Amino acid sequence: MEADGATGQLCNWAGSIQLQDIPEHIKTRAKYLILDGIGCGLVGAHLDWSEIAANGVMAMEGSQQKLPPLPAALLNSTFIQSFELDDWHSEAPLHSNSIILPALFAAAQQQKAKTSRPTSGAELLLSTIIGYEAGPRIGLALHGSHMLSTGWHSGAVFGPPASAIAVSKLLGLSAGTIEDALGIACTQAGGLMSAQYESMVKRMQHGFAARNGLFAALMAQSGYIGIKKVFEREYGGYLSCFSRGNGKEPQWRIDEISKELGETWQTEGIRVKRHASMAATHTTIECIAALQTEHPKMFEDLTKIKSILVELGEASFLHGGFEIKKPLTATGAQMSNRYCAATQLVDGSVLPAQFSHSKLERDEVWELVEKVHCIHNASMGNLYLTRVTVEFDAGTKVVKELAAPRSVTPGLTDEEILNKWRMITAHVLDVDRREKIEGLVLNLDEQGDLMELCALLEKTTTNPIAE
């Protein structure tokens, strides 16, 4: 198809780009990001809420064995998103691995079963990078994190077209057919951010995106026609509808979708988490950690803390500044600045172990939660900018302000991502299996058939927070 508007330009780029066109540092970074996504999925596969999801889906599908591609993509995405350990994009929040990897692995296995044609590691790597690039661009066209302020679960909105375009590349679809896949995917987008409070479905909403994008690409491959020019349409178009009432000028920014394609790489904006909580809590955690380091004696007796004030920008406040009460689910705790602040004070870390059922009920944590007050500071336009003020009974105050957490600025290095992978999988994989997966992923472009990696991923793991 001819490049006609942002939709056409994105489809033409995705249809024509080859792995050799991508800079080496982007390909290398993508391998480490993929490894992180796989690690998050392995850690999350047998958490209590993941087991409930798996049992429900398997009961509907009538099988306890291998699932068809659509429910497989849904569940595997749910596992990656199950513990708030997975990646996110720093400017256009979405969890790329949970959207893209499950859809691509399902498509690769479907293709192998139907045609006997193997999918190579190089094909997976290329398709993943295309998804990494498309999702944030579409998100930026909708003003990125502002989607959270309007109540949408941004990744569940940005995700279906990202999944669709990645799978379309894996299937070798033409640019015109990719446009159909995007049109089918975009009409399935959506997700309510109220899922963050007590529900389990927050874990699954990126799974809807992964599944719906896969469905869109497979339907387009079959000849089904989708919405044309889905990003340009003013009446009922993707951008026009999801931006309605956002108060922004311009209402949407369509040029972001195709701007500097192949020159500026959004893959570089994908961040990897150090803490097992929602990204907008990370600066709060690190402000408190810094205060604990700078004033160790003051924090020896936590009962002497009178109050903790957390000042946040709009998106961070609306997303993670809400009031919480006992009993609290792990979902609500991981989304809460108040709970994460108290947990950092008590445990000195916010990792998976802090969200087991028994840990969620601790009196020493809740006594501190009651002292944490989150407010919206309108002068804080930066998404991650946070100021924490801790006041003690004696009237002494200590203050820490950070513009962003370590995972955003400067971001985790490849070596740090590798260390995270080894740490989080230490209790769910044996060493031999871990090393084999690690070697295959970090040499992905040398793998002729993904099935060896798939076989390693399908084996059983354990629940890392089982009590």
From TrEMBL:
Signal peptide: none annotated. Pfam families: MmgE_PrpD_C, MmgE_PrpD_N. It comes from the Eukaryota. Residues 275-445 form the MmgE/PrpD C-terminal domain. Residues 9-246 form the MmgE/PrpD N-terminal domain. One of its GO terms (molecular function) is lyase activity. PANTHER family: 2-METHYLCITRATE DEHYDRATASE, 2-METHYLCITRATE DEHYDRATASE-RELATED. Belongs to the PrpD family. This is Immune-responsive protein. The lineage of its organism: Eukaryota, Fungi, Dikarya, Ascomycota, Pezizomycotina.
